[in-house]
Design a protein that fits this description.
With 152 residues, this protein is α/β, with parallel strands linked by helices. The chain has one domain: Rossmann fold (3-Layer(aba) Sandwich), CATH 3.40.50.1970. The chain is built from 6 helices and 5 strands.
């Protein structure tokens, strides 16, 4: 049963989000990757989010570039924690997406990580830390990962 849902607005976002999926897998966390655009197919986004808890999703990672509406739209439909990954898909290099995600209105929070691949990896780690509060095995995997960083 997936514990993390990874949502991207376009198939062209998949290469950046491979870091997310690989990091989650390496930590022993099941995840599902879905493509649905907040602008082009908002109904699909709503349906996916509304069924997330039933599918075992406990954290959602939503990646988007440009106006980056996807993380905020996702957060508007659920109280499951949402982590936004800004993508550099426009001439502004992801700064537009970063500002869109971090400027959520009060009451609809979205956590935000760095632009691009670094953010994609950190989103997976943040999701793991959130899940680690409930699951000791995941907390142990994160502790082991972080210990490995200190040895580099």
């Amino acid at each position: 049963m997936p514990q993390v849902g990874v949502l991207v607005g376009s198939a062209s976002d998949h290469p950046v989000m491979e870091d997310t999926m690989k990091t989650l897998e390496g930590l022993g966390i099941e995840a599902e990757l879905v493509t649905a655009s907040a602008h082009r197919n908002p109904e699909r986004v709503r349906e996916w989010v509304n069924g997330a808890a039933e599918r075992g999703i406990e954290v959602i990672i939503a990646a988007a570039g440009g106006a980056a509406a996807l993380p905020g739209v996702v957060a508007s439909y659920t109280t499951i924690p949402v982590i936004g990954v800004p993508l550099a898909s426009s001439d502004l290099g992801g700064v537009d997406a970063l500002h869109s995600i971090v400027q959520m209105p009060p009451g609809v929070p979205v956590a935000c990580v760095a632009v691009g691949a670094w953010g994609a990896r950190n989103a997976a780690l943040l999701a793991a830390e959130i899940l680690g509060i409930k699951y000791p095995k995941i907390r142990g995997a994160v502790d082991e990962y972080r210990a490995g960083l200190r040895q580099r």
